Amino acid sequence: MGPSIFETFSKSLNAILNDESVDALLYIFAVPQKPLETFSIPITPHLRELRNLSTKLNKPVITCVFGSRWVLEYFLKHSDKYKIPIMTQISHAIKAFKFMSDFGKSNKN
């Protein structure tokens, strides 16, 4: 969603997760350290909304955080109470979604 992420997040998230053809969401957080520090950008409201919508619609969300160790620690500090899985590699997130899908299918049999 680019630099406008914090302005368009809510509308975009709602549109994506309310789409019936969407089963899950991989949220890629790649905001550099400088803007987060300089503008004291709060991510807690976005994480709360992400978790609430994921729970309400029963659609899993995994977040991939890219950037420096500082960015990862910043994200972890604010995301812990929302219990959103966080990974640093997209391939791991995709495998996690596959495991969830396989598990769901095996429980239906």
UniProtKB/TrEMBL annotation:
<dbReference type="InterPro" id="IPR016102">
    <property type="entry name" value="Succinyl-CoA_synth-like"/>
</dbReference>
<protein>
    <recommendedName>
        <fullName>Methylenetetrahydrofolate reductase (NAD(P)H)</fullName>
    </recommendedName>
</protein>
